[in-house]
Amino acid sequence: MKKVAIVGGGIIGCCSAYYLAKAGHQVQVLDKMPKEDESGCSFVNCGYLTPSHFVPLAAPGVIQKGLKWMFNKKSPLHIAMKWDKELFRWLRLFAANSNESHVERSSATMLALNLKSKQLYDEMIADGVAFTSHHSGLLVMARTEKGLHGEYEMADEAVKMGLKPIKLDRAALSVYEPHGEIEALGGVFYPEDGFFDPRQLLKALRVKLTELGVDFKHEAEVKHLSFDSDGQIAIHFNEDVIRCEHLVLAAGSWTSDWNEIMGIEMPLQAGKGYSMNVTNMPFKLIHPTILAEAKIAMTPLHDGVRIGGTMEINGRNLKITDERLTAIKDATSLYFPEIRKHHFRKTISNRGLRPLSPDGMPYIGNLRRRPNVTIATGHAMVGMSLGAVTGQMVARLVDGEETGFNMEILHPQRFEKA
Asked: In Å, what is the CA distance from 302 to each residue of 179, 224, 259?
């Protein structure tokens, strides 16, 4: 048994705590947010389980789209350009990885992670974590010929990867979503995908962690890390200090704050996304749905529909921008014309910062010069989907076991010579 401290109380930190506690370790979680706070990225996202998302964020065509969109504050992607050498390095590395060879090298690992995580979430439910995982499939719909062609091409790639997508024309969309008027040419249905309510999952997981003896320290602002001569790690937070034998850094977009003290180079940017809960929808949405050209996700929850989207790279700026929210609302109405402005009047809007690596792959691994430190971050838009498998991998890394995955492509120090 080891004394393990985890910095970060979101989905990655909580899943890591779950598997470490199940393995018999003494676990403490340091979370900078108040106990009742539910404003973080892990709570406000759309809760997708996405084997279909096997292509990493860095892929062919993304740079061209980014250049087209980056100065438009209403576009799906907005980069606030400013003099920031870390941002420039990240952009250079992102451009270098946005190619077919990177996709070919990464896709199998990304798919395997997603499929394993989906299985592990079901096992969590069987273990008494009280949330519901909906194996509903995922619907992608496109309004333009170009968009539909691109989605059909992606479906062809998914077939090669072993998935079983179904290509849909306009009429077939209405079979899958029969209750609302749809303005789209067609789409693709991915039966292997699903969703859950992120808030329900996080709350249930924290209850289970308490039962397993995990010690949560909320409003714990970590100020400094130091390494004792006996190999232990001292974590200085608020006015207190705790010591552990192994440290897990799972603080999302804030994880790179410790690059210097760890002696590593781990490029990381925060990608702000927005979501809103619409409680007075004019129709019942059956499936989680992606609006392809607009890059918008919709999730049917018990109290309405969560609509989320956009990627805004602007440091760790948590400000909610009305222009971005308006763009999401307007684009949603293009696909579902029954959704009008008045349906959004009582919505609760949120934002979260997704941690982005320059190649779109997570950072998971033990540091080379400090093997008693494990990094787990950089999951971009699939943090919820990969939460369970990341937690299991972290526990195996702490125990010095094989994870069963290609760890070189995930290693947090993979860009140090780039």
From this structure: 16, 42, 41
**CATH class, 3-398 region:** alpha beta
Is the sign of the CA dihedral 238, 241, 244, 246 positive or negative? positive
Average pLDDT of every residue of the chain = 92
Which residue has 């990177």 as its token pair?
102
Per-residue pLDDT for 118 more than 80? yes
Whole-prediction pTM? 0.95
Nearest C-alpha neighbor of 231 from the set 367, 372, 337 = 372
Q: Label residue 216 by pLDDT band (50, 70, 90).
A: very high
Alpha helices in 170-230 (DSSP H): 170-176, 198-211
Q: Are 137 and 194 in contact (CB under 8 A)?
A: yes
Count other C-beta atoms under 10 Å from residue 150's C-beta: 15
DSSP 6-42: EE--SHHHHHHHHHHHHTT-EEEEEESS-TT---SHH
Q: Is 91 helix (H, G, I), strand (E, B) or coil?
A: helix
Residues in Cβ contact with 346 at an 8 Å cutoff, skipping those fewer than 6 apart: 279, 280
Delimit the domains of the chain by residue range. Answer: 3-398
C-alpha distances in Å from residue 225, one per residue of 59, 242, 394: 36, 10, 20
Identify the helix (H) or strand (E) that includes residue 142. strand 138-142
Q: What is the distance of C-alpha 200 from the center of its chain?
A: 16
| Helix intervals (H) in 62-197 | 62-69, 85-97, 100-126, 145-160, 170-176
- Tens-digit pLDDT profile for residues 41-94: 999 999 999 999 988 876 666 656 665 666 666 777 778 777 889 999 999 998
Residues sharing a CB contact under 8 Å with residue 382, sequence separation 6 or more, in sequence order: 48, 50, 53, 110, 114
CA distances from 289 to 91, 97, 190, 297 (A): 29, 28, 10, 6
Q: By C-alpha distance, which of 378, 142, 176 is closest to 285?
A: 176
